[in-house]
Structures are given as structure tokens and as C-alpha cells.
What we know:
Strand content: under 5%
Shape: rod-shaped
Number of strands: 0
Amino acid sequence: MSLPNCCDVLAWAQVFTDLPVTAIVAFFTWFATSRLTKRSERRKELLSEIDKLCRKVDNIHRLAYQYHTSEKEEKDLASEILVMIKILSEDLSNANLLQRTQVCRLMIGLRRAVTLENFDTCNFSAKQLRDPLIKRIDEACAKLKKSIDESRHT
């Protein structure tokens, strides 16, 4: 069987009608399965990235609690918190889960909640869990996690 001229539509139609129906069905089955598999893999990667980002927020939250409720200022812990916030900010920007302005707003809120008061100061004092500073940290972390988690459904 020779191939027809590229402009001869009727001849091409004849070529396709000569193909066995099973070959056509097999191709479309493979195509559909391949697309669904790739979509599923992308979805799993997205969920994994979201979980990883939420764990990072939880770690920052835990370390901020530890820092602000400790008896004395721990400069190493303060440095670690700052580094973790920077890494989280970069990871959130690279993940493209949220709009850039939303990432900036949420990260500024988290950074302010954790570092604006009682952080790297001469007047460090241990805070109680009922302290407004601790509540602001809770709220900032919860807001960030909620925004990240909502991207799971988009």
C-alpha cells in the first residue's frame, strides 16, 4: 500500500479506513491511559510538595514556640528560625501554588509574628502560651497552612 499525496483528503481517508479497528482502539486506549497516568503522577507530586511545605510551617511554629517560651534567649535557635523562614519563602515561591503577592503577604505576616517582638533583643523575656505574641504566631502559621492546603483543591 503506497501513501497518497498529502493534499488528497479522500485518499488519506481510504488509508485510515484500511487500518484495523483494533489498532485504532489500541492507540486511543494507550493515549487515554497515558494521559490519566501522567495527571495522577503530577497530582501526587503536588500533594507531596504541599505536605512538605506544611511540615516546614509546623517546624517554624514549633521552633518559634520553643524560642519565645524558653527561659533565656537562644541566639542559635533565632538564627535557625530566620533561615527556615527564608527557605520556606523561597520554596513557596518556587512551588507556584499561590500567587506571588499572596506568598509575600503571608510570609511577611509570619516573619512579623515570629520576629517583630521579643526577638534578638536585649529585653528578651519568656512568654506564656496565653501571651498575645504566641497567639499571633499561631494565627500566622494557621493562615499560611490554610492557604497552602487550599491550593490542594485548585
